Amino acid sequence: MGVCLLGYKGKDLEKVKDWDGFVSPDGEFLKVTERGNMEAVHDEFAEIYALNKLNKNLDKEYERIQQNNPNYRSICLGYKDILIHCLGYINMERLSDHLLIEVPDPSINGYKVTDAQFDTLARLVRINGDDERDLMQVFKYERKMGEGYQYRR
User: Fold this and answer.
1) How far is CA 33 from CA 26, 65, 68, 82, 92, in A?
2) What is d(CA 85, CA 142) in angstroms, rounded to the nearest whole number?
3) Positive or negative, the Cα torsion across 69, 53, 38, 17?
4) Per-residue pLDDT of the chain (153 residues; tens, 9 = 90+)
5) What's the whole-model pTM score?
6) Please, are residues 82 and 54 in contact by the beta-carbon 8 Å criterion?
7) Which of 29, 68, 100, 150 has the smallest set of CB atoms within 10 Å of its CB?
């Protein structure tokens, strides 16, 4: 898998139309795969990105979280989920009939969606012609919407 480690922000977001990816806490969009690609590449991207761009080993990051929070000792997270919940990134991907937005659970490592992340998500929703109601997923922890929350039309 070829991994692009460039981040896109502001006007450059037009260049990532029709891509799925992550949004960093500072609002940069990291493209992972073109929309419609059903291969599970987000975990592989997360591992490579964390090692090469953040200089972090995701296994060690999660071990640290498990040591500090006994509630997570019996939970196994994949690399995508560690990047989201332990380092504060957001995953954005288009499924067949809706947009999936996965945000950090603040109870794991204290990360919440930043204003910069929300701004980037809102811009990408407009650029891609997605339904703006899908942005409600960003608030699922603040509004206690539950783990499986997803806006239904």
Assistant:
1) 21, 28, 33, 19, 11
2) 15
3) positive
4) 566 777 899 899 999 999 999 999 999 999 999 887 767 689 999 999 999 999 999 999 889 888 888 777 778 889 999 999 999 999 999 987 789 999 999 988 899 999 999 999 999 999 999 999 999 999 887 766 655 555 444
5) 0.87
6) no
7) 68
Those residues with Cβ within 8 angstroms of residue 87's Cβ, 6 or more apart along the chain or in another chain:
25, 50, 54, 56, 61, 109, 111
Q: Name the residue with tokens 């990532």.
A: 16
- How far from 9 is each of 24, 57, 58, 73, 151, CA to CA, in Å? 10, 25, 25, 36, 26
- For the chain, what percentages of helix, strand and coil (3-state, to nearest 5) are there? 45, 15, 40
DSSP string, 72-133: GTT----HHHHHHHHH--EEEEE-SSSEEEE---HHHHS----HHHHHHHHHHHHHHT--GG
In angstroms, the CA 136 to CA 101 distance is 9
Report residue 61 as tokens. 């990051």
What amino acid is encoded at 107 in this protein?
S
Domains of the chain, by residue range, sit at 7-139
